[in-house]
Design goal:
By secondary structure, this protein is α/β, with parallel strands linked by helices. The chain contains 10 helices and 9 strands. The strands form 2 sheets. The chain has a 5-stranded parallel beta sheet with strand order 1-5-4-2-3. The radius of gyration is 18 Å and the shape is globular.
Length: 286
């Protein structure tokens, strides 16, 4: 069986010794970039390797040209996957301690390179620990493998396509940030507040229950059917602050049984505001 959206702690525990499974720790804090690796070294799921969002799940930032988390090149990321012992037959499980926000970035990036056998740990590392499951300290490595990429460029849209869509309104756009940043009440980590004109608010945290796990598929389906308003998921575009939390919504869409195909504006808000001529909206919006 392949896991392609979410996996439970019990299902992962049953496969810890499977050499065809790779576990990747994606813990990260936007305001403390060393915290994730420190947490990993202090204790992680046995066999897991560590993925740093800035260093391995992102490419170089070009001031005034890119957002805060641009993608690495296909070649760079394929080499990173091979170094982590991931090939085209490996089942990958990503986890963090933020209900899948950072693990979702790796989930999407693997699919971007044509690898569908990747799932996010539902309940994250906190559920794993709370259940008393094994944890080990120190760094771990897997034997290198060769990963052959099969890129899917249609999974994302460029800033020029976003600008054209603002004018045409052809595709629905959704902002995964919290409502205060969407309205422009606060700017967060970016120097400019607001949202892309025409975008609807779709805060990713509303995908979660009080336990930090994803809501049941039926509840997620109701949420996204209401947001989509009759349009197809593959016609939707999601963005966030810097191209990280938007993937949470894409996981939820698929877990809800609404299929795949929704696209990502990876540059997101931090890329949009690099050009002051691009329009900005504030308030409740659409």
């Amino acid at each position: 069986m392949r896991y392609t959206t979410l996996i439970s702690t019990a299902e992962l525990a049953a496969h810890l010794d499977d050499p065809q499974w790779a576990v990747v720790d994606c813990r990260f804090k936007l305001d403390d970039k060393a915290a994730g690796r420190q947490g990993y070294l202090a204790g992680h799921i046995p066999g897991a390797v560590y993925a740093h969002v800035d260093e391995e799940l992102s490419g170089p930032i070009i001031p005034g040209k890119t957002g805060r988390h641009p993608l690495p090149t296909v070649e760079q990321f394929a080499a990173t996957l091979g170094r982590w012992g991931i090939d085209n037959e490996t089942q990958v499980i990503a986890y963090d301690d933020a209900s899948g926000v950072f693990a979702g970035r790796l989930w999407w990036m693997l699919r971007w390179l044509g690898h569908d056998a990747v799932a996010v740990l539902d309940g994250d590392f906190r559920a794993w620990q709370a259940e008393g499951r094994p944890v080990v300290a120190g760094a771990e490595k897997r034997s290198p493998r060769a990963f052959v990429s099969h890129p899917r460029p249609a999974m994302q849209v460029s800033v020029d396509e976003m600008l054209a869509n603002v004018q045409s309104g052809q595709s629905k756009m959704f902002d995964a940030r919290d409502e205060a940043r969407y309205r422009g009440d606060v700017a967060g980590l970016d120097p400019v507040a607001g949202h892309i004109p025409g975008a609807q608010s779709a805060f990713y945290a509303h995908n979660l229950g009080p336990d930090g796990k994803f809501l049941p598929p039926a509840q997620l389906r109701a949420r996204y059917e209401a947001l989509l308003g009759g349009s197809k998921p593959e016609e939707a575009i999601f963005y966030c602050g810097s191209g990280v939390s938007l993937h949470h919504n894409l996981i939820a869409l698929e877990h809800a049984g609404l299929g795949r195909g929704a696209r990502a504006y990876i540059g997101s808000w931090s890329d949009w505001i690099t050009d002051p001529s691009r329009p900005i909206a504030t308030g409740e919006g659409t």
